């Protein structure tokens, strides 16, 4: 039985890997903006793979604020909760509140149900850069990267790469630094996020969601980090709307 279990796991996993070496969109980071983007792209018929360096997808949404498992979403994004059947309670005329664990697990489930491949425990350490375009991702095991082990990575090809890595905006920073390219930002590089301003941060998260170099898009907190805008704290409407916006932009390009 033990060998049958091993064979079943390895054969099914490697078959899925072989089927997903090339895809339409690679989303790096599996927080709420990345998951919404994956759902919308999959609904439009595109092949999507997500990469998460940690064991559990979901980004910072699991913990709510200071481990209080409740998150706030403003009215403008409530329709996305309705679309994905995520329950919520009305707090006041401006906000609803959701259970953070339920909301996060629902986003993961909805993406997976649509055929989005989520590679957990995989860290994107570089991009594929060809003909002055970001054309894929370079991936290793998350623990290998964290331990600094000298193990060569593998590459995946994608028409579009989305930096949804949150505050560090690691993909944008790596692409700019290693290839000496000029990003579509005020400085041409990663500006770095500013301190908290919830109102401005929410608005700019959506405003900053765009293509910053051929083949490379940003969404969620990575967008604010790249463009030098404020963080917004434990409110998630802007993150959800950012994910929807980046999916719309990518769909327009892939058409």
TrEMBL record:
<comment type="function">
    <text>Involved in the biosynthesis of the thiazole moiety of thiamine. Catalyzes the conversion of NAD and glycine to adenosine diphosphate 5-(2-hydroxyethyl)-4-methylthiazole-2-carboxylate (ADT), an adenylated thiazole intermediate, using free sulfide as a source of sulfur.</text>
</comment>
<feature type="binding site" description="in other chain">
    <location>
        <position position="124"/>
    </location>
    <ligand>
        <name>NAD(+)</name>
    </ligand>
</feature>
<protein>
    <recommendedName>
        <fullName>Thiamine thiazole synthase</fullName>
        <ecNumber>2.4.2.59</ecNumber>
    </recommendedName>
</protein>
<feature type="binding site">
    <location>
        <begin position="150"/>
        <end position="152"/>
    </location>
    <ligand>
        <name>NAD(+)</name>
    </ligand>
</feature>
<keyword id="KW-0479">Metal-binding</keyword>
<feature type="binding site" description="in other chain">
    <location>
        <position position="221"/>
    </location>
    <ligand>
        <name>NAD(+)</name>
    </ligand>
</feature>
<keyword id="KW-0784">Thiamine biosynthesis</keyword>
<keyword id="KW-0808">Transferase</keyword>
<keyword id="KW-0520">NAD</keyword>
<dbReference type="Pfam" id="PF01946">
    <property type="entry name" value="Thi4"/>
</dbReference>
<feature type="binding site" description="in other chain">
    <location>
        <position position="167"/>
    </location>
    <ligand>
        <name>Fe cation</name>
    </ligand>
</feature>
<comment type="similarity">
    <text>Belongs to the THI4 family.</text>
</comment>
<dbReference type="InterPro" id="IPR002922">
    <property type="entry name" value="Thi4_fam"/>
</dbReference>
<dbReference type="GO" id="GO:0009229">
    <property type="term" value="P:thiamine diphosphate biosynthetic process"/>
</dbReference>
<comment type="pathway">
    <text>Cofactor biosynthesis; thiamine diphosphate biosynthesis.</text>
</comment>
<dbReference type="GO" id="GO:0009228">
    <property type="term" value="P:thiamine biosynthetic process"/>
</dbReference>
<dbReference type="InterPro" id="IPR036188">
    <property type="entry name" value="FAD/NAD-bd_sf"/>
</dbReference>
<feature type="binding site" description="in other chain">
    <location>
        <position position="60"/>
    </location>
    <ligand>
        <name>NAD(+)</name>
    </ligand>
</feature>
<feature type="binding site">
    <location>
        <position position="231"/>
    </location>
    <ligand>
        <name>glycine</name>
    </ligand>
</feature>
<dbReference type="InterPro" id="IPR022828">
    <property type="entry name" value="Thi4_prok"/>
</dbReference>
<dbReference type="GO" id="GO:0005506">
    <property type="term" value="F:iron ion binding"/>
</dbReference>
<keyword id="KW-0408">Iron</keyword>
<feature type="binding site">
    <location>
        <position position="152"/>
    </location>
    <ligand>
        <name>Fe cation</name>
    </ligand>
</feature>
<dbReference type="GO" id="GO:0016763">
    <property type="term" value="F:pentosyltransferase activity"/>
</dbReference>
<comment type="subunit">
    <text>Homooctamer; tetramer of dimers.</text>
</comment>
<dbReference type="GO" id="GO:0052837">
    <property type="term" value="P:thiazole biosynthetic process"/>
</dbReference>
<feature type="binding site" description="in other chain">
    <location>
        <position position="33"/>
    </location>
    <ligand>
        <name>NAD(+)</name>
    </ligand>
</feature>
């Amino acid at each position: 039985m033990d060998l049958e279990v091993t064979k079943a796991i390895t054969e099914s996993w490697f078959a899925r890997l072989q089927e997903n070496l090339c895809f339409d969109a690679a989303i790096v980071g599996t927080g709420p903006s990345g998951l919404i983007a994956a759902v919308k792209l999959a609904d439009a018929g595109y092949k999507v793979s997500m990469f998460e360096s940690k064991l559990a997808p979901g980004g910072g949404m699991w913990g709510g604020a200071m481990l209080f498992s409740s998150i706030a979403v403003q009215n403008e994004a409530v329709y996305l909760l309705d679309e994905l059947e995520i329950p919520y309670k009305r707090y006041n005329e401006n906000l609803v509140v959701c259970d953070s664990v339920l909301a996060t697990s629902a986003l993961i489930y909805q993406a997976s149900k649509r055929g989005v491949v989520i590679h957990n425990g995989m860290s994107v350490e570089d991009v594929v850069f060809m003909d002055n375009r970001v054309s894929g991702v370079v991936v290793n095991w998350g623990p290998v990267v964290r331990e600094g082990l000298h193990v060569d990575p593998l590459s995946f090809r994608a028409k579009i790469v989305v930096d949804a890595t949150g505050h560090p905006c690691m993909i944008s920073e790596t692409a700019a630094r290693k290839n000496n390219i000029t990003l579509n930002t005020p400085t041409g590089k990663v500006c770095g996020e500013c301190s908290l301003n919830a109102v401005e941060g929410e608005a700019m998260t959506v405003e900053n969601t765009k293509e910053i170099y051929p083949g490379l898009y940003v969404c969620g907190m990575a967008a604010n980090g790249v463009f030098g805008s404020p963080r917004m704290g434990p409110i998630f409407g802007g993150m959800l709307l950012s994910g929807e916006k980046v999916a719309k932009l990518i769909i327009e390009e892939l058409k």
